[in-house]
Amino acid sequence: MRRIYLDYAATTPVHPAVIEAMTPYFNEKFGNASTIYYYGREARSAIEASREIFAKAIGADTSEIVFTSGGTESDNFAIKGVAFANKNKGNHIITSAIEHHAVLETCHFLEKQGFNVTYLPVDKDGLIDPSTLKKAITSKTILITIMHSNNEIGVIEPIEEIGKIAKENGIIFHTDAVQSFGQVPINVDSLNVDLLSVSSHKIYGPKGVGAIYIRKGTKIVQFMHGGEQERNRRAGTENVAGIVGFGKAIEIAMRDISKESERLTKLRDKLIKGIIEKISDVKLNGHSTKRLPNNVNFSIKYVEGESMILNLDMEGICASTGSACTSGSLEPSHVIMALGVSHEVAHGSLRFTIGKYTTEEDIDEVLRVLPGIISRLRDLSPLYKK
Ligand SMILES: *Cc1c(COP(=O)(O)O)cnc(C)c1O
Which atom of ligand 1 sits closest to the CA of residue 70? Predict the structure, then answer.
């Protein structure tokens, strides 16, 4: 059966050139980068080459980059690291209601440790209002952590403005840019961010590797303790092959970013337009233009997200209800709920995220089978009246 993968926000296939770049680092070039003989130097220089690629991609200095095991670790490091390093200055953290679980659960943990966390609301399009942020700041605020773009509804937040407010108030600012990186241009100076998280497996690199940008001078405590790797900021033998693959994936993403985002935006808008035309009682979740080129998220009234996913799967189409982390749970998505919709509407959310291998035929196929699936499911729904 031909399968159509439309869940690129959950993960992406590793690019063939990435696999090729990584392969030698499993055996021929197997050295531990902390050793000083030939094999070690070889591994070290491969890591530093990736560091340069990433630093250049976001306008940072190589000394400001730390490789991690992925987006989750980068978020944990940024938030706990800053909170614990600055607790003599204050105990207040500001975030948003629509963050990824890697940020939300870290904040919940810190609440148990005596920190106070404000979860900023978003408007009906999923956007943070910078003036609401301004009002939430107190003399105790030490950290603002707000995502660059949302993984469920694709909305791109006004990070530059938020960063400016943080800077004016002398507050450290972290952004989770896992979904944005590789899709929209990112520059840490124009965004006014102090810390930024990224992940490799969302940009056609391997799983289990990511990075964090830490602006020079940012007060942060180490998260992993052990050896002196990563300038004493992240202990543990480096994932050399992973870091090499990540570097290659960044190189390819940066090379193709404008062409690819233009192509995906067209396919995205075709899918959005098609769903609105062919299916009644639907609502696009997330701002219509301030959104990632690859994200389509709808609430489809009178049907349940899970049933749509299973029925699409029978037609060979892989989609999602929103977040890989919450699938299987019966709770509606916290992101869709934050848009101010009812429980029922939130239960009917359907996300398609397109990517490198998505074609126009794939979009046509979705638009061909989806209306039938929805109408069959609605016929079974007691809530739906024709
Ligand atoms: C995927 C994702 C993460 C987690 O990254 P991992 O590398 O899978 O740990 C964090 N934040 C956002 C917005 C994501 O989409």
Answer: 7
The finding on whether 182 has its CB within 6 A of some atom of ligand 1 is no
Q: Whose CA is nearest to atom 14 of ligand 1?
A: 178
CATH topology of domain 16-252: Aspartate Aminotransferase; domain 2 (3.40.640)
* Number of alpha carbons in the 13 Å side-chain half-sphere of residue 369: 18
pLDDT at 325: 45
Separation of CA 176 and ligand 1 centre (Å): 8
pLDDT of 47 > 70? The answer is: yes
CATH, domain 4-11+258-380, list 3.20.20.30, 3.90.1150.10, 3.40.50.2300, 3.20.20.480 = 3.90.1150.10
pLDDT digits (tens, 9 = 90+) for 118-169: 999 999 999 999 999 999 999 999 999 999 999 999 999 999 999 999 999 9
**76 C-beta closer than 6 A to ligand 1:** no
Give me the chain's average pLDDT, please.
96
Strand order from edge to edge, sheet including 349-353: 282-284, 295-300, 349-353
C-beta of 70 in contact with ligand 1 (< 6 A): yes
CA distance 81 to 360: 44
Q: Is 318 a catalytic residue?
A: no
Average pLDDT (63-86) is 98
Q: Is the CB of 202 under 6 A from ligand 1?
A: yes
Residues ≥6 apart with Cβ < 8 Å to 271? 296, 352, 354, 363, 366, 367
